[in-house]
């Protein structure tokens, strides 16, 4: 069976190419902010894959270790399911889950969702080769578009939505509440949600993970400006910005900044936007919240998703929560 590798969700290009309202908003604020989703053009997704291999960046390998130990138990707990992954990227860790589901089912479906078309298409083509018995199709779009699509396409059997890598950390508390509502809407009673979250830990470990010695995280952060340059005909000069990540202990979140080195103006032609930058001014490009496993279970319960089981590593650096609507 030949399956189109990608399904482009409604208005994907409109949302990403023509809109940019969120950029105008963020750059007109004081302090300036930019939405973290703009990290992920194809180059950004590539750089993120490199981050995942860094010695200082513990989340990916810690979560992968938990998954390799417990994937079979997760599959046993849910039984045969339609598998939907939000922000799948290269789907490397996903293989651990797909291997486990392949053991318990002979008609698996897997829908990875991502905003980077290049990486999504490549990973779907590879997975179709590796799992010929699966129906695999990438959904190209934002989380909002994907969850709206899923809510409009209920699956008669069970569905498991998974959201790994602590990508939830990019959302403010209000945004996560909204997001959990959208997840619940895309599930019917009895369906499952598997969430991977990075847990609170000492500041020095966290800051090292986001200020790596090889400068890959710095390149990833600066790449957001290149992305805006090509997507919106901008003229950000990457040499005028410096990367820094700090752990805000009070808010238990990493904050990634681009600090402006010299006063200058930037234009984004297709957004009709001209912005002044002062020397020493900074753009907040990302928050990466660090969570408490018990707290998170309570928040999920409030949204009607009850925890079935949690897993963590021996150091309790990362947690997985399986819940049911
Ligand atoms: C993909 C959002 C989970 O917050 O750790 C990695 C992104 N930023 N290094 C994270 C990121 C800097 C990552 N998430």
From TrEMBL:
It is an enzyme of class 2 (transferase). It holds the Pfam family Methyltransf_33. Residues 21-324 form the Histidine-specific methyltransferase SAM-dependent domain. InterPro entries: EgtD, EgtD_Methyltrsf_superfamily, MeTrfase_dom, MeTrfase_EgtD-like, SAM-dependent_MTases_sf. Its EC number is 2.1.1.44. GO terms for molecular function: L-histidine N(alpha)-methyltransferase activity. NCBIfam families: egtD_ergothio. Keywords: Methyltransferase, Transferase. This is L-histidine N(Alpha)-methyltransferase. It comes from Calothrix anomala FACHB-343. The keyword Ligase does not apply. GO terms for biological process: methylation.
């Amino acid at each position: 069976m030949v399956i189109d590798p990608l399904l482009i969700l409604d208005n994907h290009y409109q949302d990403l190419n023509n809109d940019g309202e969120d950029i105008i908003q963020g750059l007109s604020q004081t302090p300036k902010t930019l939405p973290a989703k703009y990290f992920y053009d194809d180059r950004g997704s590539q750089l993120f894959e490199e981050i995942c291999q860094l010695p200082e960046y513990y989340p990916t390998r810690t979560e992968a270790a938990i998954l390799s130990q417990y994937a079979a138990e997760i599959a046993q707990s849910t039984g045969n399911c339609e598998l939907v992954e939000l922000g799948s990227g290269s789907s490397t860790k996903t293989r651990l889950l797909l291997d486990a589901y392949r053991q318990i089912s002979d008609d698996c479906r897997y829908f990875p969702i991502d905003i980077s078309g290049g990486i999504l298409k490549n990973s779907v083509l590879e997975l179709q080769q590796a799992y010929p018995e699966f129906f695999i199709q990438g959904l190209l779009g934002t989380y909002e578009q994907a969850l709206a699509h899923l809510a409009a396409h209920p699956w008669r059997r069970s569905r498991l939505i998974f959201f790994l890598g602590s990508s939830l950390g990019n959302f403010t508390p209000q945004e996560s509440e909204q997001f959990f509502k959208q997840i619940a809407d895309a599930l019917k009673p009895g369906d499952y949600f598997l969430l991977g979250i990075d847990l609170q830990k000492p500041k020095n470990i966290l800051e090292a993970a986001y200020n790596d010695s090889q400068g890959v995280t710095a390149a990833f952060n600066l790449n957001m400006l290149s992305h805006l340059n090509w997507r919106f005909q901008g003229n950000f000069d990457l040499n005028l910005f410096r990367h820094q990540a700090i752990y805000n202990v009070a808010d238990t979140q990493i904050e990634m900044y681009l600090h402006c080195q010299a006063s200058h103006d930037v234009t984004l032609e297709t957004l009709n936007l001209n912005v002044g930058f002062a020397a020493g001014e900074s753009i907040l490009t990302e928050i990466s919240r660090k969570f408490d496993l018990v707290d998170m279970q309570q928040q999920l319960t409030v949204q009607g998703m009850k925890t079935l089981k949690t897993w963590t590593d021996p150091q309790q650096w990362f947690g997985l929560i399986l819940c049911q609507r």
